[in-house]
Specification:
Blueprint (H helix, E strand, L loop, with lengths): L7 H8 L13 E9 L3 H11 L5 E9 L6
Parallel strand pairs: 1-2
């Protein structure tokens, strides 16, 4: 479903387990690009998925955001 039409709670539920990554990022630095961050649910779900691959760090770069993203 399109995220922009959902409530904050619906967005989180809609994104649950929607990303998969099967690689190994041990010791790697990861940079995620996004155009705009509103609820931060997409970023939280991507981070949750990528963390399973054991990266050294994960950073986010967005063109616009309504707030600071926190884990």
């Amino acid at each position: 479903k399109a995220q922009h039409k959902l409530s904050r709670e619906e967005r989180a539920k809609n994104l649950k387990n929607s990303f998969e990554f099967y690689g190994d990022l041990t010791g790697k630095k990861v940079l995620i690009f996004d155009d705009i961050i509103t609820s931060s649910n997409t970023m939280k779900e991507i981070i949750r998925t990528i963390e399973k691959a054991n990266p050294k760090s994960i950073e986010i770069l967005a063109l616009a955001s309504s707030h600071r993203v926190k884990k």
